[in-house]
Amino acid sequence: xxxxxxxIAIANRLRWEVGGNFHxxxxxxxxxxxGEIARKTMRKKDGEFAFSLDRKIDKIVTNKWTGxxxxxxxxxxxxxxxxxxANYPSELLSGLLVGDLYNFLRTSFISAGVPDWLTGLxxxxxxxxxxxxxxxxLPPMAIFFPLFTLLEDFGYLPRVAxxxxxxxxxVGAHGKQALTMSMGFGCNAAGVVATRxxxxxxxxxxxxxxxxxxxxxxxxxxxILIATIFIGGLVPAHLAGLVSAGAxxxxxxLGIVFSLVTSWFLSKTILxxxxxxxxxxxxxxxxxxxxxxLYTSFIDRTLIVLWRAVVFAFPxxxxxxxxxxxxxxxxxxxxxxxxxxxxxxxxxxxNGIILLAYIVAIPxxxxxxxxxxxxxxxxxxxQLSGVGVEAGVMFEAGSIDLTRQILEAxxxxxxxxxxLMLFSLLHNPCSTTLYTIYKETGSWKWTVISALMxxxxxxxxxxxxxxxxxxx
Amino acid sequence: xxKVTANCENCPVHNAGNLIKLGIDMSDYDYVxxxxxxxNTGKSTVFxxxxxxxxxxxxxxxxxxxxxxxGFEFNGHKYKLVDLPGTxxxxxxxxxxxxxxxxxxxxxxxxxxxxxxxxxxxxxxxxVLQVFEITDxxxxxxxxxxxxxxxxxxxxxxxxxxxxxxxxVPCVAREKKGIPELLQSIDDVATGKYKCKPxxxxxxxxKLQEAIKVLKFKLNKVFPxxxxxxxVALRLLEGDAEIIRAVKSGEIxxxxxxxxxxxxxxxxxxxx
Lengths: 472, 272
Hints:
Number of strands of chain B: 8
Largest sheet of chain A: 2 strands, antiparallel
Order of helices and strands of chain A: HHEHHHHHHHHHHEEHHHHHHH
Strand content of chain B: 15-25%
Strand order of the largest sheet of chain A: 2-3
Oligomer: heterodimer
Number of helices of chain B: 12
Largest sheet of chain B: 7 strands, mixed
Largest interface: A-B, 71 and 68 residues
Order of helices and strands of chain B: HHEEHEEHEHEHEHEHHHHH
């Protein structure tokens, strides 16, 4: 017997001698003592109960009938403000970065005698990808994040968790999963780390695997952009903002539904078990400090996410340019892939370019749209500027319709738009999130499941939508 | 004239000018400060106020799940501040609470600052009394005083200080009210200028005392560097499966050196 085992043996023997209930006695005296001190030092003024206003608000926002509608309306309001507010700055940035600066760089490179391939690689590849990321991503992020942070500081998130708790318990998951899900709305990697607040390993795994169904920073702008172009375009202009916001809320809710269904499926099959109980504390409402929130959400979220996007965009741009220009049998690598996968992609209402973009964008969801745009431009021989390239389709960069024009030239329809929004919700997590999942679970098996399950679901759902669409 | 200067130097408001926020620069620190408390009491807000960092804060319990670290300098002493996840009790089992528990127990901070929600004093005191069981050097940051006032709650800080036997500093961390006084108290306790006499709950029965003594002796022999062996002994008697496992495998000795860098990285990755 080692000395360590001996300690345990002694402890086991002594436990009998001491008797079993000393722990309860200890806790009891602790609570008694705390109560005594509080009574001696704390005084409650006469009058209303503490936090009476909070209770009144809670009665409404956690009410069985009004709780969920208020949740959806708040979400819709946030998106509506984002959609409305992002238009003008997007236009400005795109005109500046994808238009003027791009033309200027290209002209300068050519007049400086830089070889064509290097100009292509650096300007048409790396620079253009970065410019697109900034102009497409920055405006919605700069509006959406502060709004979301304000809601969080106010104390609304735990109420969301409170509303959702019974739903999660019914599907055999932990009620706190509503909180980790909300964290996932910011960043899935952060959401996966946040699952540490869940004690039971079974429920924690469910929360980790399903966190991907929370749309993250990298996917909100994609949703907002595509909804604005394809869904908002279906209705008269004055309704467009509202309808686009509604569509994004719809996708977000669909994500929650998938999260619940998948949790239910997992807890009935490979992760069997009962939901455990817990205490959820509803913190008091606190008036957010607007300026500080604007500042920190800009620094903490907007700039960090944008920086990550730019860092990933430059090499992605190089890769895109390279696969679009390295040729086998006079056809570029990208075109080989696109032509090969196009027939298959048609079944699920997408196209080969989108599939290729999702492979290129595994490191960061943020660069999906810029990648799609660049691949579409090169695949169809579209032209962004008149400088140094033979005649082709000319686009006026900076017009609000640039993205729409490029996508429509690439054969996109409303169906493609809807399917892209669905696929953006249902596909593998980004590589950072996958790495985090591996670190948190320490298991390849669960990491692989977390990656493959959403893809399978994505293809199934888009396939069904496409087939239904074809019927009608 | 001299006397006036001396008084000024004793005044925390004057000394607040000596606060240098070092952000993430934590080189050659003199003291380690742990920031503990119930969930959602404003630990991260206090952390930001002291270090000048912008650790994400949010109004919900469970927002901080990993440790964050930062530095500041006060009165010529360099401090490393560790922001811990919120915990209701040192007997909890979830991973985030374990991070807090292990650090307070085995990380041996020079001062443990417990951030207490003034509007929920009684419940918060449960944790305070538990921490008193394992360390003397505690400063209470009585936060959210504005909220308490708004809700008609009055707290007699002087009596509370006397009852607890450690400095109690009323604060509104969001508005940086009370931060200079908090700094002064931390400094006083860290340098030993203020001798804490934390209130301990009444002596346990004789049999239990004897059993703890026997186990403690044995533990100290096998793990000579183990701090808080009394707490470990108590947990062994209670049959805490996790602690039994850690003693059996010898891991309990390793919790001693919490790997600071890997924790830090984990946090950074998650944020990005």
